[in-house]
Each structure stands twice: as structure tokens, then as C-alpha cells.
Amino acid sequence: MTISKVRKEEQLNLESLTWGDLTWVNIEGPTERETEYLAQNYPFHPLDLDDCLSRIQRPKIDEYKDYLFLVFHFPVFNKEARVTAPSQLSVFIGEKYLITLHKGELKPLVKLFRECQIDEESRQENFSQGSGYLLYRIIDRLVDYCLPILNKIGDNIEAVEDNIFSDRRRGTVKGISILRRDVISFRRIIWPMRAVIGSLEPKIRHFTKMDMAVYFGDMVDHVDKIWDGLDEYKEVIEGLNDTYDSLATNRTNEVMRLLTVIATILLPITVVASIYGMNITTLPFLHSDYSLLFVLLIMLVIIGGMLYFFRRQHLI
Amino acid sequence: MTISKVRKEEQLNLESLTWGDLTWVNIEGPTERETEYLAQNYPFHPLDLDDCLSRIQRPKIDEYKDYLFLVFHFPVFNKEARVTAPSQLSVFIGEKYLITLHKGELKPLVKLFRECQIDEESRQENFSQGSGYLLYRIIDRLVDYCLPILNKIGDNIEAVEDNIFSDRRRGTVKGISILRRDVISFRRIIWPMRAVIGSLEPKIRHFTKMDMAVYFGDMVDHVDKIWDGLDEYKEVIEGLNDTYDSLATNRTNEVMRLLTVIATILLPITVVASIYGMNITTLPFLHSDYSLLFVLLIMLVIIGGMLYFFRRQHLI
Amino acid sequence: MTISKVRKEEQLNLESLTWGDLTWVNIEGPTERETEYLAQNYPFHPLDLDDCLSRIQRPKIDEYKDYLFLVFHFPVFNKEARVTAPSQLSVFIGEKYLITLHKGELKPLVKLFRECQIDEESRQENFSQGSGYLLYRIIDRLVDYCLPILNKIGDNIEAVEDNIFSDRRRGTVKGISILRRDVISFRRIIWPMRAVIGSLEPKIRHFTKMDMAVYFGDMVDHVDKIWDGLDEYKEVIEGLNDTYDSLATNRTNEVMRLLTVIATILLPITVVASIYGMNITTLPFLHSDYSLLFVLLIMLVIIGGMLYFFRRQHLI
Amino acid sequence: MTISKVRKEEQLNLESLTWGDLTWVNIEGPTERETEYLAQNYPFHPLDLDDCLSRIQRPKIDEYKDYLFLVFHFPVFNKEARVTAPSQLSVFIGEKYLITLHKGELKPLVKLFRECQIDEESRQENFSQGSGYLLYRIIDRLVDYCLPILNKIGDNIEAVEDNIFSDRRRGTVKGISILRRDVISFRRIIWPMRAVIGSLEPKIRHFTKMDMAVYFGDMVDHVDKIWDGLDEYKEVIEGLNDTYDSLATNRTNEVMRLLTVIATILLPITVVASIYGMNITTLPFLHSDYSLLFVLLIMLVIIGGMLYFFRRQHLI
Amino acid sequence: MTISKVRKEEQLNLESLTWGDLTWVNIEGPTERETEYLAQNYPFHPLDLDDCLSRIQRPKIDEYKDYLFLVFHFPVFNKEARVTAPSQLSVFIGEKYLITLHKGELKPLVKLFRECQIDEESRQENFSQGSGYLLYRIIDRLVDYCLPILNKIGDNIEAVEDNIFSDRRRGTVKGISILRRDVISFRRIIWPMRAVIGSLEPKIRHFTKMDMAVYFGDMVDHVDKIWDGLDEYKEVIEGLNDTYDSLATNRTNEVMRLLTVIATILLPITVVASIYGMNITTLPFLHSDYSLLFVLLIMLVIIGGMLYFFRRQHLI
User: Fold this and answer.
1) Distance from the CA of C42 to the CA of which of A71, C2, C65, E54 falls in 20 to 30 A?
2) What angle do CA C161, C164, C167 make, to 5 degrees?
3) Which residues share a beta bridge with D197?
């Protein structure tokens, strides 16, 4: 009695899967052609269809009598720009359909669709509890996918931290700056997502056949955990920046001190030598046999006196 | 049956457009003459008319029995001062009229008025759903107009960021300072606007013929998106400032280190040479054939010893 | 039928004005004698009379059955200390009287009292709508009086900003510090005032003959506008401080670099010259006719080599 | 009919005062012996008695059917450690008794108890309105006692501020650091106290014979005033720190500049003199009568050229 | 009639204790085998059993009809990594059982279990009031265990503070950085715990035989006290960082000043000596008997003049 269909509209970037009376339509890289197709086949509000294509959306839930329109932003790490950027997922959910529109960057979503295409069993598992449960399965996978990105940042922070206290300092400032930027972007993605996922469960209730409060509660916990992690990372990075600056000031100090010591030791020698290099014949001891010893003694006395004085003043 | 009139009061900075029973009165650069005209023809509160001329208003909604008085501030980029400044739009909205007062800096508003003047079709599109819908059309355009200004700031931030990590550093501090100031001004404009636009829909409900909750919800999303962007930019700019300072401290360090290396290498040579320049005849090896070699050897030993010592202390 | 009296109690710092059945008692520089007088003639709570003299009050509204006791703090710019300080205004308001106690620093209040003393018409305008309206007139003037003080700060900020990017840097740090302190004080004055003025209207309702919601709403807007301005100034000043520090670090850098270049050019010459100044006769080319050229060549080669090396390392 | 007793339990750190049917038991330096005595004579919860001795309490109000248990922390300036530390006051208040437990550091409380011991009149004044009023008298005195501590901090801030802009800079950093720490501690004491004192009045209502809303309102105002002052001091101190750092950077700049000027003037002279000190006989003008003038001219030209160049580059 | 059993399932990391009708099952280091055992014997939700093993949980309370599932995170100081890390405690509480799952790092919990195993009396004390009371006893001990960790941080802060103002500065930056990191982690552990413990009492009410409001109120106070302490430490550490930086800048200043003084004194001597070292015979006083005195006089005059000038300019 379970009817299962895999259909692909060749002319549109659109694939659909049906099990029982529930159809999942997956649109990768939606264009105006796809939204027109949806406008003709579903009772969707034109503003929502515009939102699927627009780049300036925020995560949100729009409720209508027969369906919900949801916009999510999930973090995707862009390897080239080395930055975490938001990738939009637009969802229309009705009693008998679930339509997902995205750019194909969300790996876990694409993989889940493939699994359901290939594997009858997994199709049954995901589709049998109604469209709300299927949505939960998708969002849950995408939320879990944030964790490795978060851990990556954590690893990078530790690497930078090690660098700071070691002698490998080249590139540390850039490293901190990139990390900071990354955490800022990531936080901007998660922040509005928390509100949307937190208020999802009651709105999705009549699209599912079982009580999903526990499941959604668990998902909210995961999002909050990610948020907490990002908050901690933000503070840690600010701390690292301060630490780096303190260490740099310290090093300037050390080098200054070194320069001063060199000057304190070498300049007096030069001075005395210069004086004895003058073409003046009345310099004391100039023609004595011990003139060299005498000169060296003067030098040592001056250097010793200066070093003693500066040490006492805690200047060196 | 649709009566459409375009009227221009020659003696006043006032143009009006009528379609059906709805009139849009647009006043560019209002003066006391225009507010007196309004006072005579409409039942407006004197305080509100004062507010249209005063420069110290905040965005707000004042409700009266027959009409609403609204004050909006939209960002306008002042090219000469290179800063984003607020431009005030005052609106009176009643069942059969919409009166807009502004300084003519709000391009999208001026353009929309022109369109409706020239084009019958666009007049019908904007006027047919009541004064509330017309207001929505105006505000929506003005909100969307904020996005290119925001993106401009984003581009400037990226330019400054590139400068920081390249060698083109001249002017970077000034660039960061101007960006920071710009974002502060922009935020001050958007912040009170959010509250006004967020509470607009229920108050405007009886001036429109259709349910506009979705439309206003969409507009609120756009304003929130702008706010989010500004918030992110604020954090990014603060981060850039820190990064710049860290890099500057770094460079000071490098230069200090270089100076110290130069001093470490050259001063000992000078010292030894000065000593052998003294008019003292008892210097060792002075008259030997290998005196030069001997002196050079002393120099090399001293320099080598110092470099080795400082390297071991991680000072250079 | 309108009875108007101007009375001055010679022995007390107390003047009173009556129009119709409303009396405004103005006490400049209240002492215990004045509060005793009030205690004898009015049903005021002893704590409130103490508060009129005490220096440690906060803005507040105390409600009693027959009267309200209000404490306001308004900013007054102290020219000698060059700082904005709070000046207290205590108000007792009953149905037929309004009593103001202050130190005489609040110019707009003093001026309004004088106007009402001299001018029958202005007395009628201010007194005819009940004690609540008279209070509104006073507070409104005092709130508006904050704006020039705020603008003064804005002008000072711009002056400091110009200084920072020009070469006139002497005194800039002190200027920023004074501005910062001024904005902090100003904010501390406005912050509690917002709450008091925001909740004033409903409490004052039965002391006035007309609906004053719009008037008080307008006044609240002005206070909020002042607050917004101070908030913006606070952020701008913090930004200026950061900018100043970055520029100072930059200048240190430039000077360091200059010193390094000088050292790089002059020290090698000295070194070579010192070597050829040694009393050693085996130096190469010492007795040649081209010895000078040879020595200059060595100097140029060393300087050129060092400059080339440092330039390649982006150190200079 | 007013019965007044002064009793002191010799074996316990416990003194009690009775007037009418109200007894004030004052315990200085409570130990387990005192809490056992209370456990035997009063219906107190064991946890509360533990809390009187424990060091890790927070200000709080615990309500029971017959009594309230209150914990307050008041700031006490520790002269030795030069820091403001919290001193705990535990209070049990019932209809006919008020029990205060503290370490004897709270001067105003100790003094009030002494006054009531000695002076019949002051006993009547404090005891006649019930235990709630007596508590109000105690807390009010303790709150007022915070003001001189606050003013002390204000004076210290001004002293540090004067130091910063004068030449007396030794110890300024330590001064700022101690002030900052002091304000942090003070804020930590006042913060939870605000909540407790703010919610005290309704809970204490049935222990007093008169309406005390005005009195408690006044006390809350005082606590808020203290909090406002601390908030302002916190911001001022942070500003002072920034100002100090800017000035220090400035001074480094000035010194660097001086060093560069010295180097620019003196090094060229040395260079030229070194060259003419070489044992090379082909130097120009060496044997001329005007050789000295010629050499001095070269020196002046080099110095002048360098100064002119650096001045034009705004480097000096 | 009290039946008490101590049972240990050899094949599972599971120990259980029974007194009366209440059983405490303690699982150290839970694996899938233990959760399978629980799934077979108790009506627990599969998601909860997963959460016991997962590492990415947040503290939370999940309510079910027959039981509560609680997740707590307590701070454990990891001596090797020198950092405070969260250790998870999962609890299932039903009317007749309390199941605790943890990694064995929570000393006070392990100790309490041992005590109850060994000592009949302590078993009675902890078990006789129902599972809710037993849970309270466990959590209370774990909360109290946070205090020594907090005090440890306080001691470390004081040690770092002493270092800053003494001359022992090596390692201070690292010390501040580690402290900051530690406080950040600790705060991240306590923050969500506050919410969970604050809402625990009403939910646990039907698992206990006595009114526990006072007990839980006391525990919440302790958690809040810890939070306050961490907040204060956070501010203190930030202050220490600023102080350290100011002192470092100060020291750079002092060293710079010293270098300048050395240069000011020694360079003029060198210059004059170099001039008199030139092979020019027309130098004044060169062949006089007082030539040396003359030269020394010139040197002293130049040095004195420079020192006087710089002192007047407040540069040295």
C-alpha cells in the first residue's frame, strides 16, 4: 500500500520524492523558473516566493492558513575566502508536502535526499511521521553539522594560543583577526536561528503524527550549546588579542632594554677612546707605558658606575 | 469612474495627486507657509505641524481619532561631508489623504511621486488599496534604499581590511575612524526606526483595504536585516582597529629589533677602531704586520659573541 | 474676575504669583527657614521638605493624596570647572498651587517667572489651564534648554576630531578626557530624568484642565532625542580615543623608522672612517692616491647593501 | 507603663534592650554558642542560623510565617588592606523582637544601640513604632554611612586625575588600579543590596504600626543614588586609564623625537669629523688654512639639509 | 522494616544502593552497555539515554510523566591542562529511584555514595526523605565543591596582582591570560547551571516528603554567590590587564628616557673629541698647554646646555 515515487523534472532544477501521501520537493539553485512553477502548483504568497530568490532575508517563520514558510540560514565554511558564510534554506511545509529551496551547499541536506532516493527503508523512516517530522530530520542534521565547524574554530584558537606563547609569531595577528571575523559571522548566523528554531515546535504541530516536543527541545539545546560555544570563543579571542598586545609591548621593552645596555657599555668606551684619539698632547698618561691600562681602567670605571646606577634605579 | 488629478499649488512647495478618493500631497522643503496651509485645510494638532519643521525630532507615531502623524528618519549619504546623516520624513495619513513632508533628499520617494504623476498605471497600482497601502509602498522603497548604503560600508570595510594587511598603510587610521563614525550614525538612524516600523501595521489597519500583515512583516525583516548588518559591521570595525594596533606594535618591534642589530654589529667595530685610533703607542700588535687582521679578528669575535648571546636570550 | 497678585515675602527667599485661583511660589536658594514656612502653610511630608535641602537626591515622583512632590535634575554648564553638573529643582504641585525650589541656576525657569511677573498676558497663557499645565511649561523650557548644551558638546567633539587629524596635537588628550567626563556627567543627569518625565503625565492629569498626553509625549521625545545624542557622543568619543592612540602609535613608528634610517646611513660611514683613523699602517690603499675614493666607495657599498636588504624585508 | 530593660548576658556576646513589648537583641561576633541560644529561644530555621555564621552568604530575604530572616552586606573600608570589603548583618525580625548579628564593624549600628542603651528618649523614638520601624532606623543609618565612603572614592579619583595631567606621575598607575578595584568591590556589595532593600517594605508591613512606604521609598532612592555614583565612577576610572595610556604614548613619542633630533644633529658632525680623522692625506682642503671652516660648513649643510627634509615630512 | 541492599552488577559499571523503597543507582563512566541496561529496566526516552553519552549537552531539565531527566555540568579543575573544565552529571529521578551517570571526576558525589555504602546512619539520613531530598543532598555538595575552586582563582589573582607591582614580571602576561581563560570557562559552566538549579525546586516537589523550598533557596543563593564572585573576578582580571599594559608602557618610557640621557651626555663628548681628532692643524687652542681644559670645557657647556633645555621642555 505504500506508494513511493522518484521523479525528476528535467527542465527544472527540481527533484521530488513521494512516500505514502507525503512529497518532498527539493530545489537546488532556485531561479525564477522554479518559483513560477511553485506559484502555479501551490497556493504560496508571492512575497514568499520572492524571498526564496532574494539574498537579503533573515531567518523567519511566516504562518499561513494551509502552510508555513520558513527561512533558515546555516553556516557554511567557504574554503577559498577562509570565512564562515550563511547559506539560505527556504522551506514550504504543508500537510502533504515539504519543499526545500537552497543552493546545494548544505551537504547534510543533499545527502539525506540522496539517501531517501536510494534507500526505501530510510525513506520510510523519514517520511512516515508526516511532513513535520521530515522537517525535524533535515533541520536536526543541519544543526549537528554546525558542530564540526565550531570545533574547527576551537582548534584554530588553540593553535593561535600556542603560537602566541611560543616564538612563532609571524602571522599571529592575521590569525587572530581572521578568527575574530569568523566568530562574528558565525554568531550573526546563529543568533536569529535560535529564535526561529525555538519557536518552531508549536507551529509545526499539526504537520506531524507524533508529539515532537522532546525532539525539538533537544534540537534547541544543541543550538544553544553552539551559541554558548561561540560566546566563549568571542571572549577567548578578545583575551588573546589583549595577551598578544601585552606580550608585544613586553618584547619592545626587552629590546629597548638591550639597546640601552649596549649603549651603556659601548658608548663610554668610544668616548674615552675618542678623547685619547684627539691630537692634543697634554692628555694625562698619554706617553706613559701604562697608558693603555690607565685608559682601560677609566672605561671600566665609567661603565661599572653607569650599570650600577641604572640597576639601582631598576631601569635596566 | 476613476478620477485622477495632478495639481500643483504654484505659490507653495506643494504638489498633490488624486486617484479615486485618495489624495497624496507631497511637500518638498516645508516652511511655515506650507504648515499654515495644512493647518487651515486639515484637523492637525499644532504640535505636529511644529514637529514637521523642527530639526530635533525622533521617529514616532502619534495617534489621533481621524489621522496618524508619523515621523521617520532615513539615512542619506552626504557626499561632501562623507558621512551618513538622517533625513526626516513627516507623514500625515487619513482615510482619504496622505501628506508627506521632507527636504527632497529622499530619492526613492521623489521618484515614486514622479512615476505616479506621469504614469496612470502606476498611480492605480499604488493608490487603489487605500492610503495605508500607499504609505507601505513609500516606506518599503525607502527601506530598500538603505541596502546599497549598507553595502557601500561593507565594501569600504573590505578595502580597509585589505589595506591593513598590505603595505599601503597611509590613511588607514583615518579610514577606520570615518567608517566607525559612519556606522555609529547609521545605527542611530536605524535604531528608533525599528520600533516605529515594527508597530506600524496594527495602527494603519483601518486606512487600507487589504490585510497587510505579511507585507509589513516582510518590511520589518528588511529593517532587522539592516540592523544585523550594522551590528556586525560595528564589531568588525572594532576588530580591525585592534588588529591595526597590534600590527603597528609589531612593526615598531621589528624596527626596534633592526636598530638593535645594527647597533650590535656596528658599534663594536667603532669601539675597537676608536681604541686603535688612540694616540697611545702601547697598544698590542699595533706595529705588527698582521695588526689589521688582529683588529678585524677582535671585532668579529665581539660581534659574534654579542649576536650569539642575544639570540640565545631570544632578544633578537 | 481674574485676580492677579505679585507678592514677595521680604524676609524669605520666596516670591509668589497668583492668577485666578492658582499660585506659583518660587523659592530661590531654599534654606531651613523657607522649608519651615512651607511646613506651616502646606500639608507636606517632613521627608520631602528635607529632600529639598539635601544634596543627595535622585529625580523622583512621590505621590500623596493632595499633592505630588517631584525632584528633577537639569544639567547646568559650570564655566569655571568646565563641566556639566546637575542642578536640582524640587516641585510641590497641588490643585491650586505650584511651588518650585531651586538654586537660581536654572535660567529658563527664572526667566519664565520674570515674564509672568511683568506680563499679564503671559501669566494668563501659563496659568489658565491649571497647575499641571504650568508645570509642563516650566519643564518643557528646561528640557529645551538642554539642547544648546548638547550641541556645544557636539561642536567640541568636532573641534577635537579636526585636531586629531591635523598637526595641532598639543592638548588633544586632555580635550578628549574632558569631553568624555562631560558626556558621562550629562548622561548621569538625563538617565533618571527620562524615567521621571516618562511617567509624569498620568500622575499630573487631575491638576490640569485639558488633555496633555500629546504635549507630554512630545516632551518625552525631546528627552529621548537628547539621550540618543549623548549615546552617540559617548561612542564617538571612545572611537576618537582609539583613533588618537592608533595615530600616536603610527607616529612613534615613523620616528623609529627615521632614526633607523639615520643610523643605517651614518653609522657605516663612521665605522669605515674610524677604521681608517686607526694608527695602523697596513690598511689597504692607505697610501694610494685614490685612498679617499676607495674609502668612499666602501662606505657607499655598505650603506647601499643595508638599505637594499632592509627595504626587501619591508623593515624600512 | 513603658517598661525598659537593658540586659546583658555575660556568658554570651549578646546584649538586649527592651522598651514596651519590643526587644532588640544585638549580637556582636556571633559564634555557635549564640546561635544555639537563639535556636533554643526562638522558632528559627536551622539553615538561617547556619547562614549567620557562614561567610558565603548573599543579601536576601527569607520569609517565614512568624518572622523574617534578612541578610545584608554593607561596605566597610578596611584601612590596612586599603580596600572596601563587605560586612554582613543578619537580622531576625518578629512582631516583638529584632535580633541583629554582625561582627561589630558596622559603626552606625553599634552607635545606635549605645544611644538607645543610654538615652531613654532615643529608645522611645526608635522602639515606639514597632520592630519594622526600628529596622528601618538601623538600615537607614547604615545606608547613609555608605555616602562618605563613596565621597572618599570621588576625592581619590579627583586626586588621581590631577596627577595625570600634572608632572607627578609616579604611582598613578597603582592609584588607578586600586581605585578600580575598590569601585568593583563596592559595586558588588551594593548591587544585591538594591534588590533586597527595594523589596523590603511590603514584607515588613505587618511589623510596624505606621505606613512606611514613603520612608522606604526614600531609602531606596539613596541606595540608587549610591549605585548611580558608583556607575559613574566606574566609567570615569576607565576613562582615566585610557587617558593615562594616551599621555604615556605621547610622552614616548616626544622622547623618541628628541632622541632623533639629537641623533640628526650630532651624528653628521661625528661622521664628518671621523672622515677628517682618517689617516688619509688626500682629503680635500686638508692642508688649507680654511680647512676648519670648510669642515664646519660641510657639517652645517648636512645637518641643515636633514632637519629641513624631516621637518617637511612632518617626521620631527 | 528498613531493607538496605548494596548490590554491584559485576559486568556493568553500575552500583546500586537501596534503603526503604528508594534505590540510588550510580554509574561511573557510562557506555552503551549501561544505557541499554537502563532502557530495558526503566521507561526512559531514547533521546535522554543518548544525551547521557553525548559530549555536547547543556544543563537542562526534561520533564516526563513519571520521571525527570536532568543534566548538570560541574566545574572540575584539570591539573594537567591547568584549566577548569565542565564534567557532566546526568540524573534520572523517579519516585523510587535516583540514577546518576558521570565520569567519576566529581569527588563529592563519589564520596557521598561511598559514605552511604559504608555507613547505615548516613544512608538513613540521605534516603529517608525521598528521592528529591537525596538529589538535593548530592547537588548541594557539588555546588559547595565549587567554592574552593573559586577561592583558588581568587588566590591566583592576588598572586598575579602582587607580581605586577613588584619586579617579578616574567610570566605575568601568561598568568593573566590563563586566569582570564579559566574564569571564562568557569562562567560558561555556572551560567546555564543557575537557570537549571533555580527552576529545580517546583519540579522536584512530588519526589520528596518534606517542603524543600528553603533548602533549594539556600542552594540558589550559593550558586548566585559563585556567579557574583566570577563576575567580580572577570572585571578584576580585565583591570589587571590594563594595569599591566600601563606599567609596561611606563617602563618603556623610563628606558627611552634613560637612553636619551645617555645619548645627550655621551654623544657631545664624542663629537667634540672627534673634531679634535681630525688631522686639521688649524683647530683653536690645539697646541696650547690648556687645550685639554679648553676641550673639556666645551664638552661640559654643550652637555649642560642640552640638559637644561630638555629639562625645561619637560622632555627628560
Assistant:
1) C2
2) 135
3) none
Neighbouring chains of A at 3+ CB pairs within 8 Å?
B, E
Neighbouring subunits of B (3+ Cβ pairs under 8 A): A, C
Distances (CA, A) of E108 to E74, E97, E119, E200: 11, 20, 16, 20
Predicted local confidence at residue C9, as pLDDT: 52
Decide if C269 touches B, using CB distance below 8 A: no
Specify the length of chain D in residues: 316
The identity of residue D23, as a single letter, is: T
Residues of E in contact with A271 (CB under 8 A): 266, 269-270, 273
A248·B250 Cβ contact <8 A: yes
Nearest CB to E315; choose among D254, D274, D291: D254
- Contact assignment for C276 to D271 by CB distance below 8 Å: no
| Chain centre to alpha carbon of residue C52 | 25
CB contact under 8 A, D177 and E263: no
Bridge pairing between strands B60-63 and B4-9? unpaired
- Which residues 1-60 of chain E have a CB within 8 Å of chain A? 45, 47, 51, 56-58, 60
Q: Which pLDDT does position D39 carry in this prediction?
A: 94
Copy the grid coordinates of residue C146.
538642554
Whether B234 contacts chain A with CB within 8 A? no
Q: What is the mean pLDDT of chain B?
A: 88
Contacts of D167 (CB under 8 A, 6+ apart): E314
- E-strand ranges in chain B read 4-9, 14-19, 22-28, 60-63, 68-78, 83-93, 97-102
Q: What is the 3-state secondary structure (H, E, C) of chain C?
A: CCCEEEEEECCCCEEEEEECCEEEEEEECCCHHHHHHHHHHCCCCHHHHHHHHCCCCCCEEEECCCCEEEEEEEEEEECCCCEEEEEEEEEEECCCEEEEEECCCCHHHHHHHHHHHHCHHHHHHHHCCCHHHHHHHHHHHHHHCHHHHHHHHHHHHHHHHHHHHCCCCCCHHHHHHHHHHHHHHHHHHHHHHHHHHHCHHHHHHHHCCCCCHHHHHHHHHHHHHHHHHHHHHHHHHHHHHHHHHHHHHHHHHHHHHHHHHHHHHHHHHHHHHHHHCCCCCCCCCCCCCCHHHHHHHHHHHHHHHHHHHHHHCCCC
Pair D68, D93: CB distance under 8 Å: yes
Which H or E element spans position E62?
strand E60-63
Could you tell me if A258 lies within 8 Å of chain B, comparing CB atoms? yes
Q: Are D163 and D157 in contact (CB under 8 A)?
A: no
Q: Which residues pair with E90 in a beta bridge?
A: E71, E101
At B146-180, the pLDDT tens digits run 988 999 999 999 999 888 888 667 788 989 999 99
Angle subtended at Cα E220 by Cα E215 and Cα E225, rounded to the nearest 5 degrees? 125
Lowest mean pLDDT among A170-179, B160-169, B262-271: B160-169
Cell of C114: 520674570
CA A80/CA A83 separation, integer angstroms: 8
What is the distance between the alpha carbons of residues E68 and E55, in angstroms, rounded to a whole number?
20
